[in-house]
Amino acid sequence: MDAARRIHERARYLRGRFLNSVAVIERDIAVILTEYFCTSDPAKQELFFRHVVTSPSFTLRAKKDVLIRIVKNDYPRYWDEHSEVLKDLDEIMAFRNKLAHSVVDVSECALARPLEKGVGFVDWKQGEPITDEQFQEWEVKANMVSTCLVEITRLLPFKERPKA
Question: Is the pTM of this model over 0.70?
Answer without folding.
Answer: yes
